[in-house]
Amino acid sequence: MRKKLTFGIVLSFLFILGLGVYFYWRHEKHYKIVCYLATWSAYRQPPMNYNIDKIPGNICTHVVYSFVGLDGESFELKLINPKFDSSEHGLQNFTALHKKWPHLKLLVAIGGWSEGGESYSEMVKEEERRKTFVASVMSFLEKYKLNGLDLDWEYPGEASRGGHPDDIENFSKLLQELRTEFDKHHYILSAAVPATEYYVKQGYSIQNLTKYLDQIHIMTYDLRGTWSGSADVHSPLTVRPHDKAEYAKTNVRNGLELWTNGGATKKKLMIGVPFYGRSFTLVNKDNPHLNAPIIGPGAPGIYTNESGMLAYYEICNNMKRHGWTKEWDDVGQVPYAYHEDQWVGYEDEESLMIKMKLIKDEGYGGAMIWSIDMDDFNGECGNKNALLQVINDDLKR
């Protein structure tokens, strides 16, 4: 009888242990897919205008409404585009996504490149101003029933962006104060951060960000552009033979190592991937190779209408219908394409699969996308939301 009881206890123990291992494994394999939405995409020319009801909430874990801003006088959060955000019920429609996709975590991002950094530097340097800002954030999240805030201050400490050397310390103070209040309501606190040593050293205490943030969204894109002086892909995985000087460390792998070597927890790091390409006008159309000389930015896209940038849906259309030639960077593990004197470096399904493998192999927290409104969401070239679907499928395997 005693032997039977002992055997039964052992079996029960093994069963419970097995369940624990299973659920631990499931938890560890739960990757985040953070989808940024550029709200101005709603005003693009049809059929490439992107309304909130097009968000594929079944293949994102988090969606970030971008952007709101900071009032430089009151130091409270403010609406940058009241017409869309309020009059056209953008924020209200955004939070209504919870009804259709209860699992979604809905965040709002403050900042962005166009905001600059001066008002943020002024806000963080005084305790009372920080308190005012934190209070306004809490009221905003409660009003719109959001799950959290994403800080996209570009960039603390950078003088050309209105920054100050004390920003690195004062930004950490703000994060600590936000964390204290957020913990009371289980809000998510995240930040979009650079992947280059120059910006990181000026304005970010990596250890403090790891301590106070739930998620760190690394902008491992825009690593090349017209400022680089040649045609190149802006999100290379690793260093290539033609990368010299500071560009020898300006790639996805080095950007991630910059943060992990500084003490960042891998599970909090989301690898940024672009759903757009950086484009160029070549000096010589007969030399369309990687690192070719350029005159300047590429021609604006029909729908994105911005020099030097093409949405993925514009790039795939160019190749499918307008005779563009696709090539592959074997070292950087990214594609590029060209036609006549136009050239673009971008991400496709194959390059994203490689980056998702990196996330899984090395234990990062997931992927961050800028931005889902530039995916092939209408299925112009094949499957709808082709890039986002690849990310979802790969990370759930």
TrEMBL record:
Single biological process term from Gene Ontology: polysaccharide catabolic process
GO molecular function: chitin binding; endochitinase activity
Sorted UniProt keywords: Carbohydrate metabolism, Chitin degradation, Chitin-binding, Disulfide bond, Glycosidase, Hydrolase, Membrane, Polysaccharide degradation, Signal, Transmembrane, Transmembrane helix
EC number: 3.2.1.14
Enzyme class: hydrolase
Protein family: Belongs to the glycosyl hydrolase 18 family. Chitinase class II subfamily.
Domain of life: Eukaryota
Transmembrane segments: 7-25
Organism expressing this protein natively: Tetranychus urticae (Two-spotted spider mite)
InterPro entries linked to this entry: Chitinase_II/V-like_cat, Chitinase_insertion_sf, GH, Glyco_hydro18_cat, Glyco_hydro_18_chit_AS, Glycosyl_Hydrlase_18
GH18 domain segment(s): 31-397
GO cellular component term of the entry, any: extracellular region
Name of this protein: chitinase
Catalytic activity: Random endo-hydrolysis of N-acetyl-beta-D-glucosaminide (1->4)-beta-linkages in chitin and chitodextrins
Matches recorded under Gene3D superfamilies: 3.10.50.10, Glycosidases
PANTHER family associated with the record: CHITINASE (PTHR11177), CHITINASE 5 (PTHR11177:SF144)
